[in-house]
């Protein structure tokens, strides 16, 4: 087994544990809920196994649903994000995606930021739509999506730079 697999397993367990223990207990002003566990899906290797990503995303969402008692909304949001991830890469990076020269945990460029922004937005929108499940809550869904996306992106960028591998 190679080190990429161990890194992915470690990242999966660490992000899920931190989400369950710390961030599931945070709710600011009733609208802002951080979900930095989506970093696992974002940081999954570009040339990694697509089926493995979908299965890992399902497992990630399923475990989150079990600990959050949320009935499948995290699973749906994680699988949706994992499915649309290649399209987000193509949208954000263009031809660079084709050559698989992308590392999300490098210096934050506009392309990387747009990838993280749209990925977190998709995840949160699906999550909050399934949570409310009524069109009458449209403004509530929109406000929660925008505010939680901003907070999650800030946390995600901080986490990426805290655990960024040193290059010498």
Give a description of the structure.
The chain starts with a helix and ends in a 6-residue tail after the last helix. Helix 1 runs parallel beside helix 3, helix 3 runs antiparallel to helix 4 and helix 6 packs across helix 7. The model has no long low-confidence stretch (mean pLDDT 84). Helices cover 70% and strands 0% of the residues. The protein is built from 7 helices and no strands. The protein has 168 residues and is mainly α.
Search tags:
globular; 7 helices; mainly alpha; 168 residues
In round numbers, the mean pLDDT is: 84
Residues in β-strands, percent = under 5%
Q: How much helicity do the residues have?
A: 55-70%
**CA gyration radius, whole angstroms:** 15 Å
The profile of the biggest β sheet is: none
Helix and strand pattern: HHHHHHH
Number of contiguous helices = 7
Distance between the termini: 26 Å
Q: How would the global form be characterised? A: globular
Total strands: the figure is 0
> Which structural class fits the helix and strand makeup?
mainly alpha
Unreliable spans: none
């Amino acid at each position: 087994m190679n080190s990429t697999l161990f890194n992915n397993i470690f990242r999966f367990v660490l992000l899920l544990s931190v989400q369950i223990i710390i961030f599931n207990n945070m709710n600011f002003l009733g609208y802002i809920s951080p979900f930095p566990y989506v970093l696992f899906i974002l940081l999954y290797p570009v040339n990694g196994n697509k089926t493995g990503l979908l299965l890992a995303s399902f497992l990630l969402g399923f475990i989150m649903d079990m600990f959050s008692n949320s009935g499948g909304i995290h699973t749906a949001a994680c699988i949706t994000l994992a499915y649309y991830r290649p399209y987000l890469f193509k949208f954000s990076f263009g031809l660079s995606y084709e050559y698989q020269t992308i590392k999300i945990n490098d210096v934050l460029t506009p392309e990387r930021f747009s990838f993280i922004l749209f990925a977190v937005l998709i995840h949160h929108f699906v999550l909050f739509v399934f949570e409310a499940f009524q069109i009458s809550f449209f403004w509530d869904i929109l406000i929660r999506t925008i505010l939680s996306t901003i907070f999650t992106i800030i946390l995600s960028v901080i986490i990426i730079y805290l655990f960024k591998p040193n290059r010498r």
